[in-house]
Amino acid sequence: MKLNRLITGDALKLMAELPDELVDLGFADPPFNIGFDYGDEFDDKKSYEEYRDWSATWMGQMHRVLKPNGTLWVAIGDDWAAELKVMANAVGFKMRSWVIWYYTFGVNSPKKLTRSHTHLFYFVKSKDFVCNADQIRVPSARALVYKDKRANPDGRLPDDTWIIRPQELPDGFDAMEDTWHFSRIAGTFHQREFGAANQMPEQLLGRIIRFCSNPGDLVLDPFTGTGTTLAVAKKLGRRYLGYELSTNFATKARDRIRKAKQGDPLDGPIPQGG
Questions:
Q1: For the whole model, what pTM was predicted?
Q2: CA distances from residue 175 to 19, 21, 137 in whole angstroms, order as listed
Q3: Could you tell me the CA-to-CA distances from 54 to 14, 29, 196 in Å, in that order?
């Protein structure tokens, strides 16, 4: 089948056409069902039952199309995080980590605490999965803080809390601590695509793709949006396949992917410590 492309259409129908065990790594950033206006293409205000069934369907398809050693990452907000975790278990996924991606400039609300995080789920299908730990190691606190000679000179895997702007919390996080530091794509950033509700930073996807896939592997994004996953996969020498329901988003994403070249640097500051 033809790969390295973005197809405009319904991800559930398109994934159903894929053969079993084709994909090495899946990354899904689905609509959060919080009423965001995507235009006429998608209803982001489904009933509980509708969104539950829709989510269970695409997660089941992702499990089917992933190779036995494949990996799935899912980005989701508070409202559905617990339900999606349970659904993933039900279709056969095994959770490796529940990551909190924290940022300090969430949308302000006058009557509730400002939401400043997203959940990132790391799932695998079996005990045999791709894990390129050496690609994402960071210095350990034992080495940096305590100067302990027993510390692994190669570092350690990062913690499961990813700090976006540690400089805003100087007493809470040191710039060299073993957390993941990424800049969120704010509205004033040159990388920001107009109308994107939750555009992922390239450096965040870069770390996931390096960690959970190898050059030449196939990366699938069923909700491509602005094209971050596919552009990063291309830059890092992976094959890619994506689906996007919105014609407008798909057109812009194709242009972004076309401009990306293998070996190009990823947008955004390099994560500190790794």
A1: 0.83
A2: 45, 40, 15
A3: 14, 14, 22
Total number of residues shown for the chain: 274
Backbone phi and psi for residue 32, each to the nearest 5 degrees, phi listed first? -85, -5
Q: Could you give the dihedral angle defined by the CA atoms of residues 260, 244, 49 and 47, in that order, rounded to the nearest 10 degrees?
A: 100
Contact 222, 229 (CB under 8 A): no
Q: Which of 193, 214, 213, 211 is nearest to 203 (CA)?
A: 211
In the chain, what are the domain boundaries? 5-131+157-259
Q: What are 23's strand-pairing partners?
A: 66
What's the CATH superfamily of 5-131+157-259? Vaccinia Virus protein VP39 (3.40.50.150)
For the chain, helix, strand, coil in percent to 5 are 30, 20, 50
Residue 101, classed as helix, strand or coil, is strand
Tell me the pLDDT tens digit for each residue of 75-93.
998 889 999 999 999 999 9
Summarised one tens digit per residue, pLDDT across range 214-235 is 999 999 999 999 999 999 999 9
**Which tokens is 117 given?**
């995080």
Cα–Cα distance between 202 and 81 in angstroms, integer?
23
